[in-house]
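== Sequence, structure tokens ==
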Amino acid sequence: MQPEQVKKMIETALSGAQAFVKSDDNTHFEAIVIYKDFADKSTVQQHRMVYGALGDSIQSNAIHALSLKTYTPQEWETKQKHG
């Protein structure tokens, strides 16, 4: 699976989300997901939302591993300003 496919799956399932996805081998992925609906949700809940968007791809091992960072738009803006 290509990083662009993973990005599309996340952004389609989480309408309005912005995802940045990279991979060295197309089975191990790193993703940053910015989504307004992450507000008032725990990190675990946020990650479950993303895993839910990827559904069968994780269960079928098309995505073997996913390193995930999630942010609200406000958190992402602060991170960009302060590194």
